[in-house]
Amino acid sequence: MEGDVTEIRRILIAADKFKGSLTAVEVAQHVTTGLRRAVPGVGVEALPVADGGDGTVDAAVAAGFERRELEVTGPLGEPVTAAFALRGTTAVVEMAEASGLRLLPDGVFAALTATTHGSGELIGAALDAGARTIVFGVGGSATTDGGAGMLSALGARFLDAEGAPVAAGGGPLRTLASADLSGLDPRLAETEIVLAGDVDNPLLGPKGAPAVYGPQKGACEQDVAELDAALTHYVDVLARTLGPAAAEAAEIPGAGGAGGLGYGALVGLGASFRPGIEVLLEVLGFADALERADLVITGEGSLDAQTLHGKAPVGVARAARAKGVEVIAVCGRLALGPGELGAVGIRRAYALSRLEPDPAVSMAQAGPLLERVGESIAHDFLPPGRR
């Protein structure tokens, strides 16, 4: 028997989405189905999690936040329906809802012109709804505009040499002549804005937003160089306007998050940066749920080297290990060895690829395969008398 069979009475499922296959809510549902198929009466609590990228609002809604929808400006300038989550005076805003790569038509990219304007509109809507703490998930973006679009939506003005507004996107920032942030929504000064992300890149240079993330948004080598130069100019103009702290902020880890939206939020909104999974676990009430659990099941689509750099499963495992609760993981694909898993507090991982080696079939059948994994977990970790 794999687990300590005398101890496990209640299981907490705190997994992220399986990107391209299942939402975090669906992952929990399928694992629960498998567990209860093997042990009908087993106690299971689901707390879907996210690290600031796609699915962050859905995770908040699953934890009891109210979903609010509105029409905002999408990354290509067209209207899109986006959502944020609200509970009391705390809002969870996910930039990917308004400015995400997933909103682009298949095969269409706009590396130089995609805008974060809609993300600013979401923040404005959260303020209108009474939010005074905003957890701002920054990940999954289609944009590399340094957050200029977001700031414009909130009242900032970015003008060219003729006094006309600079066009949308990161590329046109090369024409920026002046920046005026005095018109920013005054409620921002009374609001705590926490950037929740899983990257620590600066804004500029070989590890910056254009160089590292531009290619996945359709940027060719020339586009990357153009974006880096345009954002460098953007920082210079903001430093002339706001002082040297604006230039220093470009080097802060996380400033390059979401195509530099992290930088815009740091400089223009007075935001602070924290690892996404850390702040989301607090907001979602993970500590209370953990108190009720004897075993935690976490996971995401691929457990690999990127997982070790602040992704949701590692955040869950570390928090659980600190409380002495054992953690196992589910995933579509496993590229970490037992030693790497153990180092972050994951005792064992169950991969769908071991049941179905064809990646396309595994993704298409992820739900039923996860149910089989749930049965295996029940067999390995629950007492014989419970089965």
From TrEMBL:
It holds the Pfam family Gly_kinase. Keywords: Kinase, Transferase. The keyword Kinase applies. One of its GO terms (molecular function) is glycerate kinase activity. One of its GO terms (biological process) is organic acid phosphorylation. Gene3D superfamilies: Glycerate kinase, domain 1, Glycerate kinase, domain 2. The keyword Heme does not apply. Belongs to the glycerate kinase type-1 family. NCBIfam families: glycerate kinase. This is Glycerate kinase. The lineage of its organism: Bacteria, Bacillati, Actinomycetota, Actinomycetes, Kitasatosporales.
